Amino acid sequence: MIDSRCFQNDTINVISVSGGKDSLAQWLLAIEHGVQHTAVFADTGHEHPQTIEYLGYLESKLGPIKRVKADFSRQIEQKRKFITNNWYQGLITDLMVDRFEGRWALASGFRVQKIMLDEDDDTYFDEYLLYPNGRRERFVWPESVPDDRYNTAVLNGFQWIPSVKGLNQQDAEVEAAARVKSALDNLRPTGNPFLDLCMLKGRFPSTKARFCTFELKHEPVRTQVVLPALDEYDEVISWQGVRAQESPARAGLPVWEEDADNTPGLHVYRPILEWKHEDVFAIAKRHGIKPNPLYQQGCSRVGCMPCIHARKSELAEIFSRWPEEIKRVAEWERLVAACSRRGNSTFFPSTHDPRRAEQRIDIITVDEYGIESYRDWAMTTRGGAQFDLLAEANDKSVCSSVYAGVCE
């Protein structure tokens, strides 16, 4: 059933369409029930070409889709002025300070074993350091710091991750000037929302700083569709195709939100919140609508290509099927790094591959930790230690969906 408020006079329903299975399901649900609506697609500039083609297919079957996209030209111009007036002196000061305080870590081949001392109390245990030869001794972190904390050192199964020394005054001035010049040379609008946003921020989105959804989807739809609609209608209902099955956070969302974003007359509706995977594919099949072809090629999500939350298996599919997408992101990494105050930025965090995780942000480079460096890890199994030869040999014409029923 559709909420009766969606049918009230002087009300318009805004249905977000991404090219994915869930947004399609809610669009079809609205069509089935004769809901007056406008379908909207927020173009991030980071979609796979097949998704853009699929949106054209949906328009031919279901009706027009209004396309919107963010424009960061004004913010980029303001950022250029800020860089010119503020970066140089601040960078000199920062570059002269030690950029990482060293720390001890387990040496290669060593690991920690936790032994429970009380089966009924999981907080009562001992930890032992296991040597490569099987020897075992009580685990205690070294308390001392090496005399030379700027170089590597080894001590009884531990290795010292050295501090990163700050630059002298002259070198800091040269590096600061180079970073200012690099940013001003590269920070110019490209017309691609995702790339422009990342260059503006000097970084890519991450789990803790997921600014992409808000800036590239929420805001363009709000400013270019919702607010103008509120001038024309008394009530605007924004449909969101999220489902409780996807995550605990989404499971906690309400089906209806009144006056969302503290905006009178704007309401959020989540009509498929309780639907399962099979439900969203079933409604498409009932209407004779094909799923986005990316679902048949190993993708569990079909928005950004790739998403910052891409699974290892998805990344393997992208490296194997669409190396041109990896090459595009690699070029973006160099552009974003050139606009970054740190002089570096990578699409994935430097801890993405546990075998070579690096937390010293200031020594991370695009060459060593850029997206192209993750190919071997993505194409391996068993924690990244064994190459998956079957993945390399897979027939790319064969359906490999992670969702049941898609390949039927």
UniProtKB/TrEMBL annotation:
GO terms for molecular function: catalytic activity. It comes from the Bacteria. This is Phosphoadenosine phosphosulfate reductase. Gene3D superfamilies: HUPs. Residues 14-80, 219-309 form the Phosphoadenosine phosphosulphate reductase domain. SUPFAM superfamilies: Adenine nucleotide alpha hydrolases-like. It comes from Musicola paradisiaca (strain Ech703).
